[in-house]
Structures are given as structure tokens and as C-alpha cells.
Amino acid sequence: MAFVTANWNPLGEAFYRKIELYEMGWNLKDGLRECLVAAAPYGGPIALLKEPQRRSPSVRPQLEIYSSSGVAMASFPWKSGVVKQLGWTVCDDLLCIQEDGTVLIYDLFGNFKRHFSMGNEVGQSQVVEAKVFHSPYGTGVAIVTGASRFTLATNIDDLKLRRLPEVPGLQGAPTCWAVLTQDRQSKVLVATGADLFILDYTSPPGLSPQATSIVHMCVSFSYKYLALFTDSGHLWMGTANLKQPSVVIMWDGHILVAGELCSQFSLSPSLFHRLVYRKLYPLAIEICRYLKTPEYQGVSRVLKHWACCKVQQKEEADEVIARAISLKLGEAAGISYSEIATKAYECGRTELAIKLLEFEPRSGEQVPLLLKMKRSQLALSKAIESGDTDLVYTVVTYLKNEMNRGDFFMTLRNQPVALSLYRQFCKHQEQDTLKDLFNQDDDHQELGNFYVKASYKEKAQIGHLQSAVDEYNKAKNEFAAKATEEEMRLLRFQKKLEEEKGESLVGFSLHDTIRTLLAVGLHKHAEQLYKDFRVPDKRYWWLKLTALAEKEDWEEIEKFAKSKKSPIGYLPFVEICVKHHNKYEAKKYVSRVTPEQKVKAHLAVGDLEGAADAAIERRNDGEISTVLSRCSPSTDRALVERLNRAKATAAKK
Amino acid sequence: MAAHLSYGRVNLNILREAARKELREFLDKCAGSKAIVWDEYLTGPFGLIAQYSLLKEHEVEKMFTLKGGRVPPADVKNIIFFVRPRLELMDIIAENLQPPREFHILFVPRRSLLCEQRLKEQGVLNSFTNIDEYILDLIPYDGDLLSMESESAFRECYLENDQTSLYHTAKGLMTLQALYGTIPQIFGKGECARHVANMMLRMKREFAGSQNQILPVFDTLLLLDRNVDLLTPLATQLTYEGLIDEIYGITNGYVKLPPEKFAQKKPGEGGKDLPTEPKKLQLNSAEELYAEIRDKNFNAVGAALSKKAKIISAAFEERHNAKTVGEIKQFVSQLPHMQAARNSLANHTSIAELIKDITTSEVFFDNLTVEQEFMTGVDTDKVNTYIEDCISRKDPLIKILRLVCMQSVCNNGLKQKVLDHYKREILQTYGYEHILTLNNLEKVGLLKPQTTTRNNYPTIRKTLKLWMEDANEQNPNDISYVYSGYAPLSVRLTQLLARPGWRSIEEVLKMLPGPHFEERQQLPTGLHKKRQQGENRTTLVFFLGGVTYAEIAALRFLSQMEDGGTEYVIATTKLINGTSWIKSLMDRPEPF
């Protein structure tokens, strides 16, 4: 038996060994010389771009993709710009970063997916170096330009370019650099000579390990550790915050490829995702079942991915594909048919997409694609069905831009939910459209209201009010028509009086207008309004009494009280005088108050005796008690006794 | 800090914690120092979720109110806008942007494509690093109370036919079910209730497969449209908390009171230095005394306060009995709690005095008398002289509208002549522009002309026992104590659903607007609750369009009833009273 620990080598307190798992199946004539190489994490594919500097149309660089064991998966000549860097995303997509800042994205089978740019300013100065990095937010790209400026995007699927600050004192290109993700932020670590800088927005740069010049650096996959290679041949390894150096060893020209050790089970979800990206569906499903992954997270995802591939099979008929998909997916939990349909639509198969959408249980999810496919009426019904009003608004806005006005209104007319939402929108945003909508529906009541509102906003008040009257009449709302006519009459009166007397009246209610007139002594005009507007007597008396009392015009009040029998009685006269601290005047009206209100009137003017007399005379127990409660036992002793006696007599009866 | 949320039958702190966690996560997404620019409307509701300390822990250094112009200078890396998804707010945000800072938007309670489209049109959509949503539908308000704090929900649903808030309601109920388990039984009454139930069932279907494995906490959900019971909010609430709300208005759990009664009287200082700022108090069940008295009829509050006063002074007297070091130590350890109780007592004594000044006034009495006449069906078909007098005196318009609407509701509509008379009086006195408000009140059914000669309100009143002659205010035996005689219709419906069931009142249910229905939601096997004998059922009552404090008091009364058999948790779009409710329905054209 072999000595099992023989091939383990010590490294500090730990041991390691190297074993060859398998031989690469590829056959590379020139090895990896003059190649850009990128290997995807977790045993993913490997991409090679041979002789990337070639620019002539006759001799192009060749892009090749191999599996991790060296099985060829794709190969094609590179016809786009000069590639500076290759890299893989966490979803096994290949990123090709060009000199001009354009990043092209291919799937692992070499199919072009999309491209994006690292910013316009890259254009002239060109990308000198680029790196692909991974963070909790996805895959990011960082570049440095000829002008030594860094730009990075933390997540290429939600592209936000950040231009980092300049490196202080940097002349020419930095010696080397790497991207770190710390404290939920991506930062760039740059070495120039012996100086080390961290570029971000917050913390100041200036960390420097002991070395003469750093020529290469590398960050561990978890961003916990950092390796620096110096011109003196030292390799420095430590935590990425540069605070705790852990190992420093000499190196002699070999390249070490090192990864981190992870436990097999914590890896399994991402292991599993990679199987899906690599189209190893049956294996992925088996793993899901073995790991007892919840259906909607596991098997359903695999099936969705499968279906998205299926719809791209151009040789099969729509019917066949739709049936095959619905059969296999059935009612699998959490399947998004709209995603599959979107894929079909992207491949130019609109009919197939519509067929697939019918399987989608979430009506809201169907809407964006239906709109894209110009099935707007259907999109509107689905949006309404979902109950999500924002979605309804979105479709309505879309329809408004797509259709002519007549058709648009007609569509809304058939969808009351959408119509009322659109009305709300117009109320705040497009008043004129609102009017058109009411017009189309012959909604005269709302048109009337519309003009009333307008009359408060715009100068042409009378004109708007006249329109309101017309509409209310058409709506057979006699009351509103009359009231608005009355309003016009009042307005005319106010304007006229403003001109004649200089009293500011417009905007006042009828009540306040009369009150103002009385206050300034325009009694005749007040009287005229009272008659013209058929103000009920009771209200007019209250109004006049209050207005005169405010002026403390006691003489006028007395005249008013004597003018005819008061429809509101005389208690209000008593009370209002008291309210204005004139008991003398108040007493004048006490005698004219009805018997039921006598006690109250006497009490109001502070006449306890009178109140007691009235209460006793009326033999009213409640009133006697009220008066009693106002008496003070010390000062009104005689009165209290009298009241108590009367109370006893009243009780007997 | 929010311990009172976990005292109830259902631990609502779980919901609050979930909301706080989500908030922290969002704040951490915007790395570095930050300033929050608030849609003013949101600060109140957010206060129920998180205090400033939480924001500060996550590097929020400044806060501003969103208004036109540019964000005030602040030395921060991130500017975050916390806004409702409203177009007009998007325009203001666009004005506010000023690089070089990172901008973020947090939509509450939901992102809106329409708003993002607007930002795009304004050319600023790409200026935002994060555009996110903060799903804050149901906010834990108290141990048994959830509110969406959506002021305009009733107006939108019943006047404008905009059902956005109902969508949020359904979403909120889905979140609630995700945390507290699927609610097996759903009952409802009203058009909006039906719509919400439909959306919930649809949403459940859409998530088929991801089965909820939580043992259900709620047995039943009852969805009630506010327009099924238009009467209750119009009546003046007569519970302690109800009156505080009627008189001073409770906003997001806080009340502002006139300061005079709260002046700290120190010997020698006399009466000078009276505070001028209103006294702001938080009102919830975390305060022991308040929890005891909030739901009592106001006439029973005085006795409760003096009883409490005796207990507290007795507790302080204990110090004379403390002889040994151990006893003194024991006494001292209780001091903070006792002092808090004494402060609380002083505050509520002051509030009760303030309220008493009002409830004993003639104005209050006269108003209440007319309300009670209407509710008992006295002379509801004629023009009421008290209302006429109030108009003549130009009392506050809302008071008039509350009374006229109440008369209309209690008479199943007013005779055209009577209605027109009131309307004319109102327009002449308060201004013709109120024709729009009157029109709104008619649209939602609060005011209406009598179409049939048959007034079915008396039938409803008698069948549901809405008026109880001998309401016991001190030791209540029926929910009618909350309005000193009137039993809120909505709560009666809730009570009858639990026992003996709605089948017994089919006829009356048909007289009330909207359909009534029952739905069942399947539970996964193994989650069917086995009820212990004597164990109460838990019902969530959701008031679509608002609920009053008095109705809540009535439901709490039912929860506490011995052998009542059901405990209630209350949810609503907004806590309302007659005044705030009518106000939300008013249209005030702004003069040019």
C-alpha cells in the first residue's frame, strides 16, 4: 500500500496536494500562446481568443469556447473590434471587452446576446486594461483608459456606470490593479510604484505594504484575501483590507492557480444553476429532487429554461411547440409563461408567444408582452383583470399614443374601469381632454360641474357659469341650473356694487355679502338682496341681528326689533347683546321673550331674581333646578329657600 | 418600543419587524451618508414603523420635505426621495435633482410605471441609482389595529371609481397571510369587499404551488364596505378616544392639544410662561391607563380616573410603611413606574377636563339631541329647525353637512323639497361653490332624494337593534354604549355574523347596498386547526373606506365579552370621524 500522505506538502501549518483530475480533451496546436483566456468559475466553460491583435479583414482572430474538460462547444472568427479582455458572468455568459469600451455578450454556445458600452468618454483614450469581477449584485466590469481613469459597472444586468476619482499623482498607466467588493461597494485597488490606492467615493487612499514596487495583484474569489507580487519577487498574501498580512513567501517564476475550498452542499444551488445554463436539464432535475429543492425554485426553473430553448427550435411548428411545453410544464409551481412567451417573441414567433401567454395565470404578467406585440385591446382587458391600476394606466397611456382620438375614446367607453382612471388622470393633468370625454359621453351633469370649477379658475367667470347653466339644463338638473343662475345674478350685483361703492364683494357668499352691506351701512342694498334672493325671514333676521351687533349699533337693533314681529323670537336679541357685553341693551328684550325662554333670558342677563320668579311661576321643576344651580348658598340664601319651597310644591303636584 | 403591538391576540409586531427589516435593507443599498427627502404625507405613517434613530443608524444624516426648487445643501453622498407614486410629485422631484450626488427613489407603497414614464419624459429617469418600492400597505397601529393610513381611499373608491387602494388592500392582505397563514374563511358585504375578495383569490391562484405552510392565526376575514353603513361615522362618538378624535383629531396615533391645561405649575412661578406650542401626545395601548379608559363611554371616564388616582396615591403612601432597607429598596424600584402612571393620570385628567367643557356645553347637547332624534326616526322627513338655526348662525359647514346627511340616511333619502331647501340654504350661506361638494355627497349616497315612499331604515333599525333605550354607559352590556344608545350598524353586522350567522338577517342584508358573500380558501393538509374547547376564534374585520374609534371600541367590547367566542383584530384604509370623512369628500375650487 502506498504511503498516502506522501504527496502532501506543508505550507505553514496547513498541507496541500496537487492531483490531476482529468486530461483536457482539446487539441491546441500552439498552446495558449498569444491567446486571451477566460475560464468560468465552478468548472465552467473556457473561452479562448487567438491572436486578438489581428485586425485585417482577411485574417481574423478566432474565438473558441470549450467545456472545462476541453470539449469544443463553439468556434467562430471575431469580426468585431479589438478585444482587450474576456470574462465570464455568474450565469456563464461570455463578456468580450473591446478597446473602444464596447462589451459584447455571448452565451456559452457562442450565440450573440447583446452589447453595452462602458461610456462615451472611453472612445478617444481607449481601454488599456479591463477586468471582470463578481459581487453579490452580479457580474461587474471595470476598465482603465489610456488617460488612467477607472470606470466600473457593478452589475452588467442593471448597468450603472461609475467613474472613479483620479489616482493622485499618477503619471501614465498604473502598475497593476484589482477590483474589491467591500461593505456593499465596489472599489478599485491600484498600485503605482510602491504606493497602493483604494479608489471609491468615501474612504481616503493610502495603504502601503512593505515592498519596493508592486507589479501584479490578485484578489480571492470571496474578496477576503489579496495577493501582491512585487518586483523583488515577493508574494504578499493577506486580508484584502491590508491590515493582517498572513503569508509572505518567495516565488520563483511559476504560476499558481488557487481557489478556495467550499463545502459541497453550500455550493449546490449555484452548482445547479450552472447545469441549467449548460443545458444539462435531466441532470439538473435529478439534483433538485435529490436536494429536495422546493418545486418553484428548482424543477420549475429547469423546465422554464428548457422551454425557453424549445421555442427557439425553428424547425418545429407553433402548435407542436406550444403543446409540448404545456404538456411538460403543466401546472408546475411558479412557472412564468410570459417569460417563455417573451423569448418566443424575441425569436420572431409572435403567434407562438400569444399561444403561450394563454397559459399564464398572472394576468398582470401578460400585459407588457401583449403591448409589445401590439395586442393592446387584449392587454387592456388583462390589466383590468389584474386589478393593478398602475398597469391599467400604463396600457391607457400606450393606447393614447397608438390610436387616433376617436378610437381611443371608444375603447375606453367599453372599459368603465379604465375610463374612470383616465378621467382621474385628466383631472390632474389634462383638463381639456376631460371636457372632451364628458362631451363624448353626453355627461351634461359632469360638464356642468366642469364649468363651475373652471369659473373659479379663470377670469371669464360669467361665461363659464352660463355654460354650466346650459349643461345643467340639458342634464335636467333644475336645481343646479337655478342655483347657478342665482350665482350669476349675485356675481353681477357684486361687480356692479364694487364699481359703484368700492366695496370688495366678489368671492363672498350671499350671506357674507349681505352681512358686509349691513356692516358698512348699505341697508337698502342688503334689503334688496334679501328680497331678490328670497332669503328666508328667519335667516335674514339672524344675519341682520349678528351684523348689527358686531357694529354695536344698538339703536338700529332696537329699531329692527320693533319693525315687526321677530321670526326668531327675542331670546337671540338678549343673547347677542350679552355676547357683546351690553347687559343694559339685553335687558330691553327680556320682557318680549316667550314664556318658555324667560328663565334662560333672565339668567343670560344675570338676573337671578327674575329667573327665579319666572321658573316658580311656570312651576317647572327642571327650570327651578337650573336656577338653583346658579345660586350661591351664601349670598342668595333667601332665594334658595324660596326656590326649594317651590320645588317641593311642584313635586307634590 | 413597540411592545404593545405584541400584547394582543395576534402579534402584530411581526408585521412591524418585517417592515423595518425591509427599510433597513433598502437604506443599506445606498451606501454612504444620506439625506431623505420626504413626501410630507408619508412622515406620519412612517413614524409608526421606525423612529429617526433607526434611520440614523443607517447613515441618514439629514431630512427634508419635498417641495419645488432644489434640495437644500447637504454634505451627503446619497439623496433618497420617499414618495407616493403621484405624477405631480415626479415633476417636483425632477426640479430637485442637482448632481453630483447619487439619487434614489423609494416608492411607497408601490412602484409605478406611470411615474417612471413621467420621470423619463422629464429626462431624469437615468439619474437614479436605485428605483425601488417599499410595500407598506397595512401599518400596525396598535395591538389589535392595522391601518393603511390612506386618507383618500373612501373618496377614490366610492366617488371617483378609482380602485387603486383596493388593489393595495388585497396586496396587503396577501402580505398578512404570508406572515400569519392563509385565512380559511372570507365573508364580505359590499361592492368593494367583493372586488377585494376577488383579487385575493386571483392572487392566490397566481401563486399556486408556493403553498403557505404557516398555521393560520386568523380564522375569518370579514370585509365590510363603508357605504354599507354610512350612518355610523356621521354620529358623534361618545367614547373617550372617540371624543378626543372628534374634538382635536388624532393623526397617525398622535393628538395635539391646547397647552394651557398642561402647564407645569411650579410653586412661586405663578401663571406666567404659559406654553404656546400645542401639547403633542402619543395615544396607544402602550400607556396602561389609556388602554383602560380609551374605549369607555366618556361619562364613565371620570369615575375611572378618580379610582386610578386613589390607587396611585395609595401606592405613593406606601413609602411611609417602608421601614426596612429591603422595603425601601423595593419601593424605590417601583418609583419610575409609579411616576409614569402619575404623569399619565395628570395628562388624562387634563384631557378629560378639556372634553368635559365641551360635552357639557349647550351647543354639544343640542347637536346630540338632534342626532339621536334622527337615529331613532323622529321627524326625519321634515326640514329640521335646529339645522336651519345652525345655518342661520353660519356654524361650521361640516357640522351642517353631517347633520343633513344623517337625516337623509335615517330617512332613506329626503323629499325633493326638503333636500332642495337645505341645499339652497347651504349655497346661499356658505357659497355657491359648494354645489360641487353637495354633488359629491349625492354621488356617494350620503345625500339623496327619496325615490320610493318606503323608508326601510326603521326596519333595519329594529331588526338589527340599532337603538337601545337603556344603554348602560358605566357598565355596558351592549355595544350601543359607544354612542349612548346607538349600536353601530357595521359592528352589529360583525356581531351577528359570529352568532347566529347572517342567514338570520338575509332580508336586512338585501336592503343594504352591495352583495354579501362567503368564500373559502383551501388549507394544505396538516394546517387545519384543532380548536381547544373554549378557545376563541379570531376574526379580522376590514373596513374598506374607514372606521371610527367608537366602532373599534365596540369591537373590543365584543372581544372582551365573556363567552363571546370571537376576538377581533381590526384593519382599515384609514381611521376616520364624521368631520375628516366629510372633509375628504369636499371639493373646494381654488379661486384664481
From TrEMBL, chain A:
<dbReference type="GO" id="GO:0042144">
    <property type="term" value="P:vacuole fusion, non-autophagic"/>
</dbReference>
<dbReference type="InterPro" id="IPR006926">
    <property type="entry name" value="Vps16_N"/>
</dbReference>
<dbReference type="GO" id="GO:0006886">
    <property type="term" value="P:intracellular protein transport"/>
</dbReference>
<dbReference type="GO" id="GO:0010008">
    <property type="term" value="C:endosome membrane"/>
</dbReference>
<comment type="subunit">
    <text>Core component of at least two putative endosomal tethering complexes, the homotypic fusion and vacuole protein sorting (HOPS) complex and the class C core vacuole/endosome tethering (CORVET) complex. Their common core is composed of the class C Vps proteins VPS11, VPS16, VPS18 and VPS33A, which in HOPS further associates with VPS39 and VPS41 and in CORVET with VPS8 and TGFBRAP1. Interacts with RAB5C. Interacts with STX17, MON1B. Associates with adapter protein complex 3 (AP-3) and clathrin:AP-3 complexes.</text>
</comment>
<dbReference type="GO" id="GO:0003779">
    <property type="term" value="F:actin binding"/>
</dbReference>
<dbReference type="GO" id="GO:0016197">
    <property type="term" value="P:endosomal transport"/>
</dbReference>
<dbReference type="InterPro" id="IPR038132">
    <property type="entry name" value="Vps16_C_sf"/>
</dbReference>
<dbReference type="InterPro" id="IPR006925">
    <property type="entry name" value="Vps16_C"/>
</dbReference>
<feature type="domain" description="Vps16 C-terminal">
    <location>
        <begin position="335"/>
        <end position="647"/>
    </location>
</feature>
<feature type="domain" description="Vps16 N-terminal">
    <location>
        <begin position="5"/>
        <end position="244"/>
    </location>
</feature>
<protein>
    <recommendedName>
        <fullName>Vacuolar protein sorting-associated protein 16 homolog</fullName>
    </recommendedName>
</protein>
<dbReference type="InterPro" id="IPR016534">
    <property type="entry name" value="VPS16"/>
</dbReference>
<dbReference type="Pfam" id="PF04840">
    <property type="entry name" value="Vps16_C"/>
</dbReference>
<dbReference type="Pfam" id="PF04841">
    <property type="entry name" value="Vps16_N"/>
</dbReference>
<comment type="similarity">
    <text>Belongs to the VPS16 family.</text>
</comment>
<dbReference type="GO" id="GO:0005765">
    <property type="term" value="C:lysosomal membrane"/>
</dbReference>
<dbReference type="GO" id="GO:0030897">
    <property type="term" value="C:HOPS complex"/>
</dbReference>
TrEMBL record, chain B:
<dbReference type="InterPro" id="IPR043154">
    <property type="entry name" value="Sec-1-like_dom1"/>
</dbReference>
<dbReference type="GO" id="GO:0005776">
    <property type="term" value="C:autophagosome"/>
</dbReference>
<dbReference type="GO" id="GO:0005765">
    <property type="term" value="C:lysosomal membrane"/>
</dbReference>
<dbReference type="Pfam" id="PF00995">
    <property type="entry name" value="Sec1"/>
</dbReference>
<keyword id="KW-0813">Transport</keyword>
<keyword id="KW-0653">Protein transport</keyword>
<dbReference type="GO" id="GO:0031902">
    <property type="term" value="C:late endosome membrane"/>
</dbReference>
<dbReference type="GO" id="GO:0015031">
    <property type="term" value="P:protein transport"/>
</dbReference>
<dbReference type="InterPro" id="IPR036045">
    <property type="entry name" value="Sec1-like_sf"/>
</dbReference>
<keyword id="KW-0967">Endosome</keyword>
<dbReference type="InterPro" id="IPR043155">
    <property type="entry name" value="VPS33_dom3b"/>
</dbReference>
<comment type="function">
    <text>Plays a role in vesicle-mediated protein trafficking to lysosomal compartments including the endocytic membrane transport and autophagic pathways. Believed to act as a core component of the putative HOPS and CORVET endosomal tethering complexes which are proposed to be involved in the Rab5-to-Rab7 endosome conversion probably implicating MON1A/B, and via binding SNAREs and SNARE complexes to mediate tethering and docking events during SNARE-mediated membrane fusion.</text>
</comment>
<dbReference type="InterPro" id="IPR027482">
    <property type="entry name" value="Sec1-like_dom2"/>
</dbReference>
<dbReference type="InterPro" id="IPR001619">
    <property type="entry name" value="Sec1-like"/>
</dbReference>
<dbReference type="GO" id="GO:0016192">
    <property type="term" value="P:vesicle-mediated transport"/>
</dbReference>
<keyword id="KW-0968">Cytoplasmic vesicle</keyword>
<dbReference type="GO" id="GO:0005769">
    <property type="term" value="C:early endosome"/>
</dbReference>
<keyword id="KW-0458">Lysosome</keyword>
<protein>
    <recommendedName>
        <fullName>Vacuolar protein sorting-associated protein 33A</fullName>
    </recommendedName>
</protein>
<dbReference type="GO" id="GO:0030136">
    <property type="term" value="C:clathrin-coated vesicle"/>
</dbReference>
<comment type="similarity">
    <text>Belongs to the STXBP/unc-18/SEC1 family.</text>
</comment>
<dbReference type="InterPro" id="IPR043127">
    <property type="entry name" value="Sec-1-like_dom3a"/>
</dbReference>
